[in-house]
Amino acid sequence: MARTPSTMVTLGTNAPDFLLPDTVTGKQLSLDNIKGKIATMIMFICNHCPFVKHVNAELVELANDYKNKGIGFVAINSNDVINHPNDSPELMTQVAKELKYPFPYLYDKSQETAKAYDAACTPDFFIYDKDLRLVYRGQLDDSRPGNEIPVTGKDIRQALDCLINNEPLPQEQRPSIGCNIKWK
């Protein structure tokens, strides 16, 4: 299993807008539709990646814990589904329903959104402040498949807590590690 690190995009970068279909509702959603009052977390994930499967339960718990605290959440799958049919929109719908994703699961068929965000791997996490400026990019926590470290979401939880409490975010931000996005 390849271990691709996320690109550490420059903090302060503005969130690129998008208009993508939600695979559960069929609605077209934009950044404005999912933006939180305090912050917005954008996750690049997919169905088949073992790194994503490893953290899926925590992603659900994290969103449930913070969605009523002014944090907007969205997950985006940008993988090439021709060569990776397990990531098809139909199977995305199935995964989102089975796992009870409390956030939209959008399909980026053109891969333009992943390119605009400079997403590199799954999972890849980006947190933007209320003005949609990047304040965190990197890992969920130190857990990886097989390393025996529990999945807690501590790095992202700390960043979100700092935003909610109007405190400075940690200076050290470590890249996420996962499967590379499957480019066309």
What does this 3D model show about the protein?
The protein has 184 residues and is of the alpha+beta class. The chain has one domain: Glutaredoxin (3-Layer(aba) Sandwich), CATH 3.40.30.10. The protein is built from 5 helices and 10 strands; from the N terminus they run βββαβαβαβαβββαβ. It has helices spanning 31-34, 50-66, 89-98, 112-117, 154-164, and strands spanning 4-5, 19-21, 28-30, 39-44, 71-77, 105-107, 121-122, 124-129, 134-138, 177-180. The strands form 3 sheets. The protein has a 5-stranded mixed beta sheet with strand order 6-5-4-8-9. The longest helix has 17 residues, at 50-66. The chain is globular, with a radius of gyration of 15 Å. The model has no long low-confidence stretch (mean pLDDT 92).
Write a brief caption for the model.
This protein has 184 residues and is α+β, with helices and mostly antiparallel strands. The chain has helices at 31-34, 50-66, 89-98, 112-117, 154-164; strands at 4-5, 19-21, 28-30, 39-44, 71-77, 105-107, 121-122, 124-129, 134-138, 177-180.
Number of helical segments? 5
Structural class: alpha+beta
N→C terminal distance: 19 Å
Unreliable parts:
none
CATH fold group: Glutaredoxin
Beta fraction of the residues?
15-25%
For the record, what is the CATH homologous superfamily label?
Glutaredoxin
Estimated helix fraction: 25-40%
Strand arrangement within the widest β-sheet reads 6-5-4-8-9
- Counting DSSP E segments of at least 2 residues, the number of strands comes to 10
What's the number of structural domains?
1
Shape: globular
What is the N-to-C succession of helices and strands?
Answer: EEEHEHEHEHEEEHE
Mean pLDDT: 92
What can be said about the biggest beta sheet? Answer: 5 strands, mixed
CATH class division: Alpha Beta
Q: Please state the second-level CATH architecture.
A: 3-Layer(aba) Sandwich
